[in-house]
């Protein structure tokens, strides 16, 4: 390999070495009072708390030992499929589109590497497709799926500039790691896929540059992928959902999507901020850790809340709005911390004692936001006459959201499909998968077209691989 | 459709025979031949019973509050709109807000692909002679609604029912559960935006035509009051840009 051109690469310490030195946020000291302390201190990685056990399986920089070679069985274990459907309408993805018209003669598989870095996660994944349409019998193989998350101290969000620097520092090591995991040499790769958008500009750019460099180095074609399409296609592949209504909920997106006429159409979406953004910002107000993710920590707090506080409920037709809710609950939290006893919602007016805890606030916020999400999803389902729901995106990991969705779908005698952290949270494998589908349909990018964009609507993409 | 919800509805409607005709997003629609407080003279006369079941996924407090609020809002708006000039809505017969039950006049009929909602009708064929006039009529009706200071809140093609008047279809607006009273230009513009998006996602192939017909009808509905129309349009453009321009991270 022309390592002379990449002196950078040569001087880098190995992944394990780097991990030792890798800066983590300083140990967390709870600034808050009362019951919140008890719950926060439990959020340590060494804690054998059962809630935490699941998380140890997440492919994250701190425990690469857990990264295994995903094979068939592991893949199907990832599916949390509450299939209530008895007529078998979810038997698999049957496509009539010929995906093999550009197959290289003599080759039986396609292999692609995907680079994702639209927000604070940097992910690299390698996927393999066999010839022929994808189905339950002919599933995509995940060869490797590694990720590193840029974590900021409590009370702070991730800034584009710092996130981009994180991606630049880690992308080479992650790619090496991922190739190693997969046991794939560069000769076996067919294409390099990268996130074209939507996302934050600076992080996107640093990943595109890495992808371009690789493409020049290895002489492989580049495929730009829409991030949302990546989530949807990976969700469909993992769960085997045939034609679901998709709820895409993450730090930057909140959309209800259904497929029709070769496009993923947006039925409803947020009119202002995204659900993950709303949760993240509330986590910042509470100054709870951003590790492993702010939303996860809110979820754990919410499990201990029980008092429901009335919050604004803003569903507008198929759309929803969350900024007002955030402003309101931020105000409540600030009043609670400052001890502003004139607030009648929080303080008992006679005893001047707080009747609401931080846990209650988290609980009420989740209940309200998720009820809105489930409601618009149900509207979309009624509108397009389907009874399958697929949840994708980082917030899709939230078990309360999954439970609420399941309750709704039960009443409609349908099925819900959700995946676990490996595929819900931004990852490289979904970019590789969606990119490979485009590649198989003959899509190629000129080098000059391999740019990224912050605004890239889900419905702008022609879904040529579905009929 | 879930049987326990149907049972629950029947438990609120003792001794009233009802049969389920459809399950919407938030309500079950039944038909019945019984009038709640009058002797029915006409044989075969049907009524609609709309039941908003409790949603298991919602917190009980939130659920009770939403059910009551929406049922009452719908009843109040239907009451205000009944008989209004140029607006057609089902008339209201009885309300039980706590249990989320509305008793309404029967609207629509069966067509080839289900009930005669505008959505189903537009899905019937690629183009029909009366699509244009129908959509113009819907636009006109929405304009009149807005002029009365009422915002529907959930304008989609499934919330417009069609009724046969002689050989002609005429639109009728239903489902005012998300409706409210407001004279703000913003609310009306968002109302139109919701409709535009619903058309775009439900009828993607002909959405341009459909939307322009709706808008022409909407313009006409303002009659001489074109100033108001222009204000709404100006805000409508802003709202559209807001939706498209929003940065999407993550």
UniProtKB/TrEMBL annotation, chain A:
Q: Which reaction does it catalyse?
A: L-threonylcarbamoyladenylate + adenosine(37) in tRNA = N(6)-L-threonylcarbamoyladenosine(37) in tRNA + AMP + H(+)
Which residue ranges does the record annotate as region Disordered? 1-32
Q: Which cofactor does it need?
A: a divalent metal cation
Q: Which GO terms describe its molecular function?
A: metal ion binding; peptidase activity; tRNA N(6)-L-threonylcarbamoyladenine synthase activity
Q: Which domain of life is it from?
A: Eukaryota
> Residues that bind a divalent metal cation, according to the entry?
227, 231, 248, 426
Naturally occurring in which organism (per UniProt):
Cyberlindnera jadinii (strain ATCC 18201 / CBS 1600 / BCRC 20928 / JCM 3617 / NBRC 0987 / NRRL Y-1542) (Torula yeast)
Biological-process GO terms, alphabetical: proteolysis; tRNA threonylcarbamoyladenosine modification
Q: Where is the composition biased (Basic and acidic residues)?
A: 1-25
- Localized where? Cytoplasm; Nucleus
Where's the Gcp-like domain?
Answer: 142-432
Keyword rRNA-binding attributed: no
Q: Which family does it belong to?
A: Belongs to the KAE1 / TsaD family.
One GO CC term, this protein: nucleus
Question: Which principal EC class is assigned to this enzyme?
Answer: transferase
Q: What is this protein called?
A: N(6)-L-threonylcarbamoyladenine synthase
Coiled coil regions in record? none
Q: Which UniProt keywords apply?
A: Acyltransferase, Cytoplasm, Hydrolase, Metal-binding, Nucleus, Protease, Transferase, tRNA processing
InterPro entries the record matches: ATPase_NBD, Gcp-like_dom, KAE1/TsaD, Kae1_archaea_euk, Peptidase_M22_CS
Q: Specify which residues bind substrate according to the UniProt entry for this protein.
A: 248-252, 280, 295, 299, 398
The cofactor note reads: Binds 1 divalent metal cation per subunit.
**What's its EC?**
2.3.1.234
Enumerate the Gene3D superfamilies for this protein: 3.30.420.40
TrEMBL record, chain B:
- A Pfam family in this protein? Kdo
Listed under subunit, the entry gives: Component of the EKC/KEOPS complex composed of at least BUD32, CGI121, GON7, KAE1 and PCC1; the whole complex dimerizes.
Q: Which InterPro entries match?
A: Bud32, Kinase-like_dom_sf, Prot_kinase_dom, Tyr_kinase_AS
Task: State the name under which the record lists this protein.
Answer: EKC/KEOPS complex subunit BUD32
Query: What taxonomic classification does the UniProt entry list for its organism?
Result: Eukaryota, Fungi, Dikarya, Ascomycota, Saccharomycotina
Q: Which UniProt keywords apply?
A: Activator, ATP-binding, Chromosome, Cytoplasm, Hydrolase, Kinase, Nucleotide-binding, Nucleus, Phosphoprotein, Serine/threonine-protein kinase, Telomere, Transcription, Transcription regulation, Transferase, tRNA processing
Question: Does the record bear Transcription regulation in its keywords?
Answer: yes
Q: What is its EC number?
A: 2.7.11.1
Q: Which family does it belong to?
A: Belongs to the protein kinase superfamily. BUD32 family.
Source organism of this protein record: Cyberlindnera jadinii (strain ATCC 18201 / CBS 1600 / BCRC 20928 / JCM 3617 / NBRC 0987 / NRRL Y-1542)
